[in-house]
Structures are given as structure tokens and as C-alpha cells.
Amino acid sequence: MRVALVIAGPYPALRGSQVLVSHLARGLGARGHDVRVVTYGERRGLPPGPRPARVLLDAVLVARLWRIAWRARVDVIHAHNYEAAIAGLLVGRALGLPMVYHGHSALEQELPTYVAGPAARRRMARLGRLLDAQIPRRADFCIAVTEDLGTHLRRTGVRDQSLACIEPAGAPDELAGTRATAPEPGLVCYAGNLDGYQNLEFLLRSFALVRAAVPGTRLVLVTHADARSHMARLVGAGIPPHVDIVQAASYEEVRDRLGAATVAVCPRAERSGFPMKLLNYMAAGKAIVACAGSAKGLVDGVTARVVADGDSAGFAGAVASLLHDPPARRRLGEAARRAVADGAAWEVGLDRLEAIYRRVLARTRPVLLPVTATE
Hints:
- The protein is an alpha/beta fold.
- Helices cover 45% and strands 15% of the residues.
- The chain has 14 helices and twelve strands.
- Strands 2-1-3-4-5-6 form a six-stranded parallel beta sheet, with helices on both faces. Strands 9-8-7-10-11-12 form a six-stranded parallel beta sheet, with helices on both faces.
- α2 runs parallel beside α3, α8 (200-213) packs across α12 (312-323) and α11 (277-283) packs across α13.
């Protein structure tokens, strides 16, 4: 099959959505499919969230997708998140191509995290509800990254027969590239973007309690290279000297920084999305402390310590307990590594994706497109 994977954002980039698209592109390509990744391009410094400047980029994305779909004789458009879905719907309807929407989050929950103030948050939540209700149900099929998101999409009108919940799984090549590293005593690591929905203010409050219980502990926030504005916001909020922010230049540097950590943390409480960082933590064999909202696939006391959302004392207590307990860290880390190491879930996910492509193609009769030289 010829597949256009579409994402409205810079690519490649060390953000969860882009990482998932990259994994899928390689996985589908390894199975013999012709995969074209359609994005904004290799742009740096583009702030996330709703901004007027993105309208022009989205227009360029539509034109780029049209050109690639026409020239490469694409069979299926597979769009990730809302702006890509809108582009996919426009091009798909015009060319008679099926469009699969891959939801990574519910905008009713995510959009308010990009603004400050109760009134602004309420407006963004209303906009998110509108988009949640209008975009996914117009796709030929929807994929949700979590059961929570699947439930949300059903409430907005997506039919059961047109929806599948497929959680991301560890890609075999990513697992093979993970290196064992001796941890640095007392180092706690967060690896991911610094957007509002990551709940980093909660993490900083909790870490102050960790420091009180375990003096000398350090926290490192490892993020991608286009996070300068977010770093400035966090620094303005008062980053203490025992908290480091590292702008990683490559995925290898993220792995190295994570490998040096004693404990890995995920403070996110938003429930609809799937934190790709968890797969990195698990592949690295790290003891993980996560809030319940983001603890997808984790089992408290078996593969991680899972704490109630908003419980800063409980979160800090779980981190401090693991810092004092090397056997517990090893047990949790080894169990987490085993949970992602066999690759079975990855292959099952690709099987399901191929089945979805076949299903939407069976219902759609694409217009005859010319075959030209590939770009």
C-alpha cells in the first residue's frame, strides 16, 4: 500500500507525536509499504499550541499533501492530530481517498493548558469541545492512543465500528538502541517536552518535598532543542539550583541522560494521551514514578509506582522511597524492561493498522491518479 502519514508539526523532532509517526513510518516501510511522511518540514523554534502563524503552515501542509497524494498515487491518508486531519479531509475528499484519523489527545483537555487565566481556559475548552465533536467523526476510521481517548471520541459521535484503541508500543529498533548505563546516585529524570499539559509545576512542587526527605537529590529535565520559550517560562517561575534543564540535541543524548538517572518521573495527569516517554523509561529499565492519569500500561508495585493525580506528597514519597531502596528500583526497572522487550505488542499494532487500511480501502473507490517519478 501507498500511505501518506501526515502530522502538522516540525519533523523530525523529539516530541511524542513525531516520534510515534517516525516509528510507524519505519515499521510500515519494513513491511513493504510505500510510506510518505508529510509535515511542516525541519523547522525549529515553532511554539506548540494554537497560534495565528500556524494557519499559513497548515495551508502549506494541505498543498504539500495534495501534491504528494497526486504524484505518488497514495492509497490511504493517515493523519495524526487535528490540523493534519483537516488537511487529510480536504485532500481526501477532493481526490476520493480514505482518511484515517489518529488521535493523540482530546483538545477539550489539551487546549486550555496553552493559556493562562480561568476565562481563557474556558474559551479554549469550548473550542476544544467543538473540534472534538466535528473532526474525528468525519474520518473514515479513527484510532485512539488510549481507551480514555476512545471513550471521549465515542461521546463526540464516533461510532464503535469506526474506532480502534491502539496504544503505542516499543519499536524493536528503539529497544535495541538502548544502552545500559550506571545510574548517578540521587538523580531524578524527566524526559519530554515542557508544555503545560505535562504538569511540570506539580513536579517542581513535589521535588521540593523529595529534597527535604533526601538531601542532595537533583532533578534534570531533558527536553528537545526547540523549547527555549518554555524554558524561559519555567525559569521565570523559579527554577532552583538543584534542577537542571538540558536541551538534548539528539535522541541518543536523551537516552544517555535518562540512562544516568536513578528514578524516572512522569507527572502528567491528562488522561486522554499516551506519554511516549514511558516507553523510553521502560526500555531503559528505569524505576518509574507516574501520576495515575498518564500511567498507561503501568501497574503499581509491578512495573512502576503509580500515584493519584495531584498528590504531591504521595508522588514525592514514592520517589524518595525508591531513592532509598536499590532492590525495589531494580525489580521495577527489570519488570518494566521485560514488559516492552519482546516486540509482540509492536507487531500486533502494525497488524491492526494494516487491517484498518484494508477496511477503509474496501469502502472507498479512489480516483485514478497518475504514476510519476517519486519526489
